[in-house]
Fold this sequence. Notes:
Elements: H1 21-29, E1 31-34, H2 39-56, E2 61-63, E3 72-76, H3 83-88, H4 91-95, E4 102-109, E5 112-118, H5 122-137, E6 146-149, E7 155-159, E8 162-163, E9 168-169, H6 189-200, E10 205-207, H7 218-221, H8 223-227, H9 236-241, H10 243-251, E11 255-260, H11 264-267, H12 279-295, E12 301-304, H13 321-332, E13 338-342, H14 352-360, E14 371-376, E15 399-405, H15 421-428, E16 451-455, H16 471-482, H17 488-500, H18 504-526, H19 554-557, E17 563-564, H20 581-588, H21 598-601, E18 604-605, H22 616-639, H23 647-679
Parallel strand pairs: 1-2, 1-3, 3-5, 7-10, 7-16, 10-11, 11-12, 12-13, 13-14, 14-15, 15-16
Antiparallel strand pairs: 4-5, 4-6, 8-9, 17-18
Helix pairs in contact: 2-5, 12-13, 16-17, 17-18, 18-22, 18-23, 22-23
Amino acid sequence: MALEPYDDCWLRYGEVDGASLPESYRTYCANVYASVGAPELGAVREELRRGIDGLLGREPHLWQHPPRSAEGFLAVGTPDEMEVVHDSVAVDAVDSLADGGFHLRTTEWEGCDVLVLTAPTDRGLVYGTFHLLRHLSLGRSVDDLDLFEEPANAERLVNHWDNPFRRSMERGYAGQSLFDFEALPNLDDRYVDYARLLASVGINGVVLNNVNTEIPDRESANPAMSELAGWRLLESRYLEDLTGLAALFRRYGIRTYLSVNFGAPEKVGDLETSDPTDERVERWWAEKADEVYDLIPDFGGFVVKADSEGQPGPYNYDADHVDGANVLARALEPHGGRVWWRAFVYGSHSDRAVQQYETFEPLDGEFHDNVTVQVKNGPIDFQPREPISPVFGQMPDTDLGLELQITGEYTGQHVHACYHVPMWKEVLEFDTDPEGHGKRVKELFSDPGTGLAGVGGPGADPNWTGHYLAQANLYGYGRLAWNPDLDTATITDEWVRQTFGHDPEVVETVTDVMHDSWPAVVDYTTGGLGLMHMMYNGEARLENHYDPNPEEWPGYHGASEDGIGVDRNARANGFAQQYPDALADRYDDPETCPEELLLFFHHLPWDHELDDGRTVVQTLYDNCFAGVELAETLRERWRSLDGRVDERRFRHVAERFDEQVVQAERWAETLTAFFYDHSGVPDELGRVPRDE
């Protein structure tokens, strides 16, 4: 049997089982009266045809008027466009929905059963269509349906780290880039299916290229590298090629963004400076923005990584981040565009955790209204577990964006199964000031200009993400970006049932695998007490962040003969004091600091006793080996599904688990030997080889 060119992920639309549901679904969905007024409505009609055909085993009849011969029908359109919709809903309530919001209601119209899908915008009809098909795919009743939905977060972006013209991906673990920039403006069907995946979970913006728009040193040493650099996408010849791709995404309610190089006035233009305070630079950015919007009228804006890891920025010109961000913001403002200015800046401090807050908090209130400061969830760099960035909750007069990493850079790189949704829920539910003066992280992004940015899009592999189970991270990110109040169990159940079907044993087993995968990775790659960066980095651009090598990062674990951990408290660099008092006091005292972050904030003796009576070093030993045991359990659970999951996916995931277990063993052996070498304290259970 020939293989599919690529996987359908959670958009499989398998035929619905159940005594009453299919008949009810046929009553409402076998006939579809849908508006044809906008490009987005073409996407709606196509998706309804595809989805209903799969769910009911027959294509729906698509009408451009209400069918009078049918027992019932689905009506899709705005109240202004369609009489049946206008007569069936509370128009004022629909009109008050946020952009992307929609209303689903079953009712009766002229003696006919009608399921109404309506929204104030065509984008909302796209999202509503996918929500309805998800509702049907999960076997939920449509009787007495009366649902209003709108996104909690205004901006919901996916940041691709794709390198144009090379088709490579930084931190991409699923093959080459989806985007063949050299073949544009020609498009293929896979772009359509990628837009469908994003729209199905409510994504409304896609950044096409890597924030690292140049590769320092290598570009200057090799002129050919400069010809392949991402900053060239601002050149007119390449901007013109993007118009078709932007139009395709537009059909699915998704705006196109570009990562830009702060030095573009010199690199792309003919200026000798990129100084943001120079009038010529300001004029150049304004003219470039005009050109972009002439080609792509709904262009979302620019994402900028500046003054970090070799990327140029305002510091090159004795200016600050407000100067740098605002010059771009003024250029985009007339067009409704936005600057997403990344806060990942480090280099002037020995501990990068300190710099982000010190750099940006004093600038609160000075950024232009169309600047979003994009802040990683933690102060270090997408570690398997780290504290929440102290920036959140402490810049009330600045639009912030929460940056999460969809791809698994430090969580097994899509060789290991690691479900990120439980980690993200921990971030979103975090109270930025437990004394009641602040908000939870998830409450910070409801205003226009705020939202979430997920780093790392799918690649060209047939399964999109390099590991079939990693598809859940893209799905979960989109669902949480739309509604951060959703719990992990709900998101997991949705994804498992749409991806693997409704077999109770499969659902239960895959769910258990997903929920236990993150704790396993945390334990065998860190020891579980707040350590981080225990992995191999490598030379030059060959870092892999995959294999264990704690010796390479002494500044992050602080291991010595007398103890382990890094003091980030009042006795040292004062990082804990960047939080509000209640949190600072909690983190500053090892007796009250959460155990999972203990060694992030404190350097403690190896024999320091924890609440359960175990010492620090024994807990590290135990956690590493527990992580291996859990990885083995995950593998056995998956193997139990042989014959219940299709052969291709079963075999792929099974073989990935074989590799994960071997790697988990390597990690545990390396870390526990490292802990023993520095502490000289043997493992009480004799699992760590001792010096003879």
